[in-house]
C-alpha cells in the first residue's frame, strides 16, 4: 500500500481531504494552431483549473505508417481513420511545448504531459515537467512507467481498459517513484456513456491500491465528474475546447470554457458539501426555532380548567414543549391562569 497523505504536485496537496485537483486536457483540440493552444491554456486558467495537460508524441513515436487493417479504426468517433494519420493530426508539436509551459506558468497553472515513449520523457525533462501522466492505453507499458518513476516525480495513471492484474503490474512499476502516484478511473470510450461509468470503481480502487483516486472523464457534460466527487474522486481530468463547433479529434466530448468553469465550481462545491457525518446533531436553534412546531396555549385558560385540544395545540414557532408531549398534557388541569399565545411548559399543569 502507498499512503495518500503526502501526495502533491508542485506543493499542492491532493487527496480525499483536499479540494479536487482539476486538470484541463488539451489533447488535439488546438487544431494545429499554436495560438489556439495558448488560448486553451488561458481558458483553463480562467476556469479555475489547477493544471493543463498535454500529450507528447509524434505519429512516428506512437505508431508506424503501415497500410494494414489493424492500423485502421473500426467504429466510434474516429471510425475509418488510419492510426498514423489520426495521430499526425492530433499531436501537439514538440516545438510548441516550451511556449505552452511558459504560458501555463504565467497563468498560475501546473503544466505537464503524457509521454508515449522514452524520447518524450527525455524531452519533457528539459522543460522541468512537475509531474507525469501515463495514458490509459500505455498502462501496460511497464518499461515506460519504470522510466518515468525513476525521475521521482508525482505520477498519475489512467486505468482505462486495464484489468486488475494489469493495474497491479502498473502500480508495481510506479512504486519506484518517491513522490507517489495516483490512479484515474477511466472508461476508454469517446464519448463514454454515463451508464457505463460505474463510479463505484473509484472506491474499489482506493481500497485495493491505497493511493489517491480520480476520474478521467469522457462523458458528455459534467454531471458524471461532479457525481464522482461523492464517490471519493480527488482528481478530475476533462478535455477542454474553445468551441465544439470548431471540430477536432476530441472536440465532440470536450467542454467549452464556460462549461469547464462550471465543472470546476461544481466539483469544488460537491467536495465542500461532503464533510464528515453529523453524528452529534444539536437540533434546531436560533432563528430557525420560529419555523418549528411546538405546544402553545391557543385560548385563555383559567387555573384548574381541564386542558383540551381547543386550548393547547401544536403550532409554530418552536419555543414550547415538543408536540410529542400533547397526550401527556390533555385532560390535565391548568396550574395557573394561562394566556393565549404562551409557549407551553411543564409548570402549566398540575401533576
From TrEMBL:
The keyword Transferase applies. Residues 294-351 form the AFP-like domain. This is Pseudaminic acid synthase. It comes from the Bacteria. It holds the Pfam family SAF. GO terms for molecular function: N-acylneuraminate-9-phosphate synthase activity. InterPro entries: AFP_Neu5c_C_sf, Aldolase_TIM, PseI-like, PseI/NeuA/B-like_N, Pseudaminic_synth_PseI, SAF, SAF_AFP_Neu5Ac, SAF_PseI/NeuA/NeuB. One of its GO terms (biological process) is carbohydrate biosynthetic process. The lineage of its organism: Bacteria, Pseudomonadati, Pseudomonadota, Alphaproteobacteria, Rhodobacterales. It comes from Cognatishimia activa. Keywords: Transferase. It is an enzyme of class 2 (transferase). Its EC number is 2.5.1.97. SUPFAM superfamilies: AFP III-like domain, Aldolase.
